């Protein structure tokens, strides 16, 4: 079910909000795009001592993920720029992503304002990742100079991969290679099929409003308190709790507007429900694979979903 959402993020550990002081609120598109790296953060560094540099426009870069938090093995590094980059090689050369234990990491440009980095395969559990921005003084385009020099470090947690088979209505969850859970689900109906392919959880919302008019579906639905919503695409695909549908649809029929639904309770406080359990055990960066949905593979740029490109195609998108 495509949607509008409140801006409440959880990117730390299961059962622990990254910002305990956050309260649910009304979603703004700018908030989601900032989280995905499409809008420069307010904390981006600015300013120059050189007069010529002050006369130029400043390129700022917003990096996803946030520093100091724990993420799932599918979490890429996504860098969004405030201006279109014409000298992609110079900019890409000024950004390095390293891992401990070591692994080759390559960049891939999605257009001229977004550069993502990932290894060939998912990160190994426990990996420490460091992003080094050395953009200060780099001319990204004519009259556009970089202003940042900073390091961002984060860690990878356990490996958790969920496979949703919409042909059977069943989701299987594996952790560190071992099956740990299984849930009955409902997916997109014949008129609103769910994207297939590899998707990465990019945002977590304990409760949110979902309103069809925001995604071009008229007045088909407006649900003020959707529980346990986790974003899979920028365009509005979520895996979320569902308390309004009959229990008989889960595992039997696909009835949504494109999202993946798990049985849940109104208010989201019933710990016995599938929606509650899946949400509480998840991290931003966890992998959700959808198959047999009747829909084509999701665009790799629609969310943090570059894993749908082969390693060869991924590296071909580098400017180096």
Describe this structure in words.
- By secondary structure, the chain is mainly beta.
- The chain folds into two domains: 29-157, Immunoglobulin-like, CATH 2.60.40.3710; 160-307, L,D-transpeptidase catalytic domain-like (Beta Barrel).
- It is built from five helices and 20 strands.
- It has helices at residues 29-35, 51-55, 88-93, 274-280, 311-316, and strands spanning 57-59, 61-64, 70-71, 77-81, 95-100, 105-109, 114-119, 128-134, 139-141, 144-146, 149-156, 160-165, 170-175, 178-186, 197-200, 203-211, 222-231, 238-242, 260-263, 287-291.
- A nine-stranded mixed β-sheet has the order 15-20-12-13-14-19-18-17-16, with helices on one face.
- A hairpin with a 4-residue loop joins strand 6 and strand 7.
- Residues 1-49 have low confidence and may be disordered.
CATH architecture of the largest domain: Beta Barrel
Arrangement of strands in the largest sheet: 15-20-12-13-14-19-18-17-16
Number-wise, the strands total 20
The CA-CA distance between the termini, in Å, is 39 Å
Per the CATH scheme, the topology name of the largest domain is L,D-transpeptidase catalytic domain-like
Whole-number total of structural domains: 2
Mean pLDDT: 87
Helix and strand composition category: mainly beta
Beta content comes to 25-35%
Give the SSE string.
HHEEEEHEEEEEEEEEEEEEEEHEH
Proportion of helical residues: under 10%
Radius of gyration: 20 Å
* Largest sheet composition: 9 strands, mixed
How many helices does DSSP assign?
A: 5
CATH structural class of the largest domain: Mainly Beta
Low-pLDDT windows of residues: 1-49
């Amino acid at each position: 079910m495509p949607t509008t959402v409140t801006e409440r993020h959880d990117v730390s550990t299961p059962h622990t909000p990254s910002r305990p002081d956050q309260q649910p609120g009304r979603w703004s598109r700018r908030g989601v795009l900032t989280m995905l790296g499409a809008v420069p953060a307010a904390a981006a560094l600015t300013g120059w001592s050189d007069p010529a540099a002050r006369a130029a426009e400043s390129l700022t870069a917003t990096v996803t993920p946030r520093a100091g938090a724990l993420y799932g093995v599918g979490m890429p590094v996504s860098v969004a720029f405030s201006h279109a980059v014409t000298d992609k090689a110079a900019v890409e050369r000024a950004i390095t992503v390293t891992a401990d234990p070591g692994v080759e990491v390559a960049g891939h440009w999605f257009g001229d304002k977004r550069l993502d980095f990932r290894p060939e395969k998912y990160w190994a559990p426990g990996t420490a990742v460091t992003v080094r921005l050395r953009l200060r003084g780099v001319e990204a385009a004519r009259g556009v100079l970089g202003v940042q020099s900073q390091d961002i470090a984060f860690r990878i947690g356990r490996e958790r991969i969920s496979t949703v088979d919409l042909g059977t209505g069943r989701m299987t969850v594996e952790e560190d290679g071992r099956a740990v859970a299984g849930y009955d689900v409902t997916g997109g109906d014949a008129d609103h099929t769910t994207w297939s392919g590899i998707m990465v959880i990019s945002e977590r919302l304990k409760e949110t409003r979902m309103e069809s008019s925001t995604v071009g579906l008229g007045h088909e639905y407006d649900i003020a308190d959707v529980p346990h919503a986790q974003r899979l695409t920028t365009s509005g695909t979520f895996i979320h709790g569902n308390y309004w549908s009959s229990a008989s649809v889960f595992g039997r029929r696909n009835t949504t507007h494109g999202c993946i639904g798990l049985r849940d309770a109104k208010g989201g406080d019933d710990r016995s429900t599938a929606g509650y359990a899946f949400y509480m055990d998840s991290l931003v960066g966890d992998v959700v694979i959808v198959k047999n949905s009747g829909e084509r593979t999701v665009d790799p740029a629609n969310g943090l979903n570059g894993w749908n490109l082969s390693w060869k195609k991924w590296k071909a998108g580098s400017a180096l």
